[in-house]
TrEMBL record, chains A, B:
<keyword id="KW-0614">Plasmid</keyword>
<dbReference type="GO" id="GO:0003700">
    <property type="term" value="F:DNA-binding transcription factor activity"/>
</dbReference>
<feature type="domain" description="HTH lacI-type">
    <location>
        <begin position="7"/>
        <end position="61"/>
    </location>
</feature>
<dbReference type="InterPro" id="IPR010982">
    <property type="entry name" value="Lambda_DNA-bd_dom_sf"/>
</dbReference>
<dbReference type="InterPro" id="IPR028082">
    <property type="entry name" value="Peripla_BP_I"/>
</dbReference>
<dbReference type="InterPro" id="IPR046335">
    <property type="entry name" value="LacI/GalR-like_sensor"/>
</dbReference>
<dbReference type="InterPro" id="IPR000843">
    <property type="entry name" value="HTH_LacI"/>
</dbReference>
<keyword id="KW-0804">Transcription</keyword>
<protein>
    <submittedName>
        <fullName>Transcriptional regulator</fullName>
    </submittedName>
</protein>
<dbReference type="Pfam" id="PF13377">
    <property type="entry name" value="Peripla_BP_3"/>
</dbReference>
<keyword id="KW-0805">Transcription regulation</keyword>
<dbReference type="GO" id="GO:0000976">
    <property type="term" value="F:transcription cis-regulatory region binding"/>
</dbReference>
<keyword id="KW-0238">DNA-binding</keyword>
Amino acid sequence: MEKAVPRTMEEFSTACGVSRPTLSKFFEDPGSVKKSTRRLIEAKLEETGFQPNLYARNLNRKQTRSIGIVVPAITDPFYAQLVTRLELILREEGYWPLMISPHGRPELEREGLATLQSLRVGGALIAPLGYDSDATALARFTGQTPCVFLDNGIDENVPLVGNDNRQSIRMIVDYLCRSGTPPVYINTPPVNRSSGQRSASYEAAMQANGHAPLVIEGSGPDPWDLEKVGYDRMQAMLAEGLPGQTLLCANDRLAFGVIAAAHEAGLKIGHGDGDDLRVAGHDDHPLSRYSAPSLTTMAQDYDEMARRACARLLAMISGTDDDDAQQVLVPAKLVLRASA
Amino acid sequence: MEKAVPRTMEEFSTACGVSRPTLSKFFEDPGSVKKSTRRLIEAKLEETGFQPNLYARNLNRKQTRSIGIVVPAITDPFYAQLVTRLELILREEGYWPLMISPHGRPELEREGLATLQSLRVGGALIAPLGYDSDATALARFTGQTPCVFLDNGIDENVPLVGNDNRQSIRMIVDYLCRSGTPPVYINTPPVNRSSGQRSASYEAAMQANGHAPLVIEGSGPDPWDLEKVGYDRMQAMLAEGLPGQTLLCANDRLAFGVIAAAHEAGLKIGHGDGDDLRVAGHDDHPLSRYSAPSLTTMAQDYDEMARRACARLLAMISGTDDDDAQQVLVPAKLVLRASA
């Protein structure tokens, strides 16, 4: 029932009676051919459903219009949110995002980089797994392809766009100290630099507020199963006796697990008089406004991070990158909700 | 500092002193060349970091080893979980998954299909947006490429692997009716067939239990922002007076919003004597065990759905598909937690 679709550029050229060179110009930049020709080609594309083979074209170019995106795991909403914004921006800019997630596995991260290299992507936005990453494979890739690191860096030679952990942790520690008992810090497992930066910022902020810092290290069989890490850590603390009435979690997913364990133990969470415990997080996870109680947290500026990362990468690709800052750290905003 | 990497198959052939045909055989199937040759090639690959251009090779074949995956939005954990399982299975099978998410936008779904077509994918696993999908573009794509629909279908000519909504809704309705007051059903906005199937199953199950069904329709500016849909609907119900003491939500994300609004209103959720309200969901969202209280729900069998969908698609691709079932409906499991 379907009309036969032209398979090759030749067939399409014949189908619409437009020369190959003109077609190539059109696919390079539709604005570069006569309006009438453009309308004719677009009509034929619509009518036949012909799809020029983008890679076949890309292979004949120095550089493709495709951009690789690599994040540790799309099941982590932080990365899912970031990827969504990056893809929408890149499409707006006329680039073609190709997202690969290694699902937390170093060997798949290495394989993903190899795939992007074999696809001759014009550049890549990479949130590395972190300490588990194959540093050699990453260095080889970033040495040959324009790259910007997201969220956390791994190599000083590659620009990084991420959250300003120093500013954001300082802000929420200051708030918690002013509004109640000083916070105990629940840390993530040490998967990347960012986790170390946040706990260091917590310690500095506590000292600046004249309080002794107390960091409780999170751990678990799967360091990316953060709700479970928080849940298990909270159960252990409840058994040993809580180290404080205010808990600051390194991120919201830890906080969800902490709140779940506290709720099961019959504790009331919030900043009211009748409440037993304050819990705060970091990131503004999409579900943090719907937790019970809703979660006080630091909102990472996904939009700004995505905008800056794309702008920097596209400048690097087009050779117009005059920015020599190795790090772009985006400040986060304090979001006051019911939990603290 | 980096050693120059061979750019072409010719250069790599020279670098390791292995003929082009042998190299092609190796990249087709490493087991098809002599063990010593294989070791030599693998050592050179490791040493030089050479990446054969997979697409350049694929273009010269009838069929590529790459498989497209299209899901409405990776920010929805249901799809993020499913994609993760699909990708891991396909990689195991020696295929190369290429995931594209239209982020809930019909025009990006259409563009994504065009992209996959231009990449000559060997097949695709597609969870269509639903009623917003461009049916013509989908029919054109599925008419030319082996496809299996996931989660919800849109075209009877394409096999579907999804949850058995009739079985799963029936099971949780039976449980709720036996263990307390009959459930009122909170529906999602009507985005796809699956939502209609679930509410119909609810009505049938209620009648089978001798109760009058009551469906409360969910709605919102963004039908994919399901927590907000549930939250707003619950606030409205609390203002008008609750239609019942047991609420069955069409999925867990709705339930999170419902629980958040109920918690803010000071209602106690659970199946105990002191509790005001029972809330149940559907899907077993990764966070449903960490909500406060933890959520009673129907666990969709992600693993089985992913396994069946991949097996069916790979059979279609290899021409060994002797299965004429147009639908594979996978039963879900009842997960009893604290909320109902």
